[in-house]
């Protein structure tokens, strides 16, 4: 009975060790569910309240007679754009103005569009200070820069509205609007009024609306899948099959032992996995990296007393006899073999000189003496051959003379 109560208390104790099932179902699944709901809410908001506007409108105030939109501003948001400019005029001037009076030319506003080359040439000929519109500082305001006056104005200039440089143009009293369909990145826009330009407004009409809700719905789907997996598969007893493979392995080993097969050479599951080391073209593998010249870059190698003993002990030099002519390299005679005393009883200086490719004085004398002996032996052989040929010729002559005498 006490054991049962202790077990019951251990099960109900809040200090019980957290296992994978509790972590997945009490922490991971609720967190993934909350994130999924939040992503769904943001997706719905981006479809309704936070949906991007179809028309983007931005404006800026100016105080110069000329306002120039830089190249790339006209098609910054969309290729469908309209530029509206308003003259600088007070309320009193507006109330006194009459259509068609003498000051109507001063109240004229012109907006034109042309290539970058034509606009730059026109502004250089005017030699006046003007305002540049460089882009968007926010979704509702334009960023501007003031350009100072440079150079001298050209003489006999034509009016802006009368020039044939512009692809599109529009002039009106007080306010003028130029609509551009298919704006190009190399186009610039000029707004001009003799009274001065007070404000410029650019409206872009979006033809392809960006869908900002899709990323939120995608994240919501991912979090829902994680929540479902954390509640079902990941919280199971063996989700990745490690225990199942271990049991199968143990059953196979037991079957082998029952058949009398030694299983001591079979690696167990607890041994570390050593992947196959494929040699590279340079012959460098992970093992040579860790133990070679650059071993310090990949981890310090642990040294043992055996390694230090082997390092102190000089290793013998291994020579491949199949690739070396031992008789010729030792300087032995033609009749000596690789196991003759002249080859075996060489000194260290001789071996070292052969290894380095140089000859000592003693070796040079032995070589010259051996060369002289070989020359004398060759001369003696030639003399013997000549003598034998002469004797054979004389014997032939004697035999011929004897036959002639006998015939007579």
From TrEMBL:
Keyword RNA-binding: no
Biased composition regions of type Acidic residues, renumbered to the chain: 380-393
Keywords of the record: Membrane, Transmembrane, Transmembrane helix
Biased composition (Basic and acidic residues): 299-314, 394-408
Transmembrane segments: 26-49, 216-236
Coiled-coil ranges per UniProt: none
Residue ranges with Basic residues bias: 278-289
Region described as Disordered: 272-323, 375-408
Descriptive protein name: GTPase
Upper classification of the organism: Bacteria, Bacillati, Actinomycetota, Actinomycetes, Bifidobacteriales
């Amino acid at each position: 009975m006490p054991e049962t109560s202790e077990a019951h208390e251990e099960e109900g104790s809040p200090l019980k060790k957290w296992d994978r099932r509790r972590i997945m179902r009490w922490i991971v699944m609720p967190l993934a569910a909350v994130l999924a709901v939040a992503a769904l809410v943001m997706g719905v908001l981006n479809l309704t309240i936070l949906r991007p506007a179809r028309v983007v409108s931005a404006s800026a105030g100016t105080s110069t007679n000329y306002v120039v939109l830089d190249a790339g501003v006209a098609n910054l948001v969309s290729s469908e754009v309209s530029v509206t400019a308003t003259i600088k005029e007070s309320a009193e001037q507006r109330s006194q103005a009459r259509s068609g009076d003498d000051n109507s030319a001063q109240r004229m506003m012109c907006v034109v569009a042309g290539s970058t080359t034509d606009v730059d040439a026109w502004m250089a000929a005017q030699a006046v200070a003007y305002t540049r519109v460089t882009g968007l500082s926010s979704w509702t305001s334009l960023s501007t820069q003031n350009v100072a006056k440079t150079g001298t104005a050209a003489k006999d200039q034509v009016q802006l509205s009368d020039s044939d440089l512009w692809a599109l143009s529009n002039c009106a009293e007080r306010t003028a609007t130029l609509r551009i369909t298919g704006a190009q990145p190399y186009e610039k826009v000029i707004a001009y009024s003799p009274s001065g330009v007070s404000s410029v407004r650019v409206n872009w009409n979006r033809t392809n609306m960006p869908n900002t809700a899709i990323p939120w719905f995608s994240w919501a789907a991912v979090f829902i899948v994680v929540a479902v997996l954390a509640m079902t598969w990941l919280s199971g007893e063996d989700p990745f099959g490690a225990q199942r493979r271990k049991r199968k392995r143990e059953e196979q080993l037991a079957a082998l032992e029952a058949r009398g097969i030694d299983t001591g050479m079979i690696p167990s599951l607890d041994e570390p996995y050593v992947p196959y080391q494929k040699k590279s073209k340079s012959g460098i593998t992970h093992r040579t990296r860790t133990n070679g010249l650059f071993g310090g870059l990949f981890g310090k190698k642990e040294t043992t007393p055996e390694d230090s003993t082997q390092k102190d002990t000089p290793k013998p030099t291994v020579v491949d006899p199949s690739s070396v002519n031992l008789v010729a390299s030792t300087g032995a005679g033609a009749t000596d073999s690789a196991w003759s005393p002249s080859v075996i009883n060489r000194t260290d200086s001789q071996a070292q000189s052969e290894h380095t490719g140089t000859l000592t004085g003693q070796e040079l004398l032995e070589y010259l003496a051996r060369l002289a002996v070989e020359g004398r032996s060759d001369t003696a052989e030639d003399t013997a051959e000549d003598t034998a040929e002469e004797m054979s010729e004389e014997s032939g002559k004697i035999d011929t003379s004897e036959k002639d005498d006998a015939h007579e």
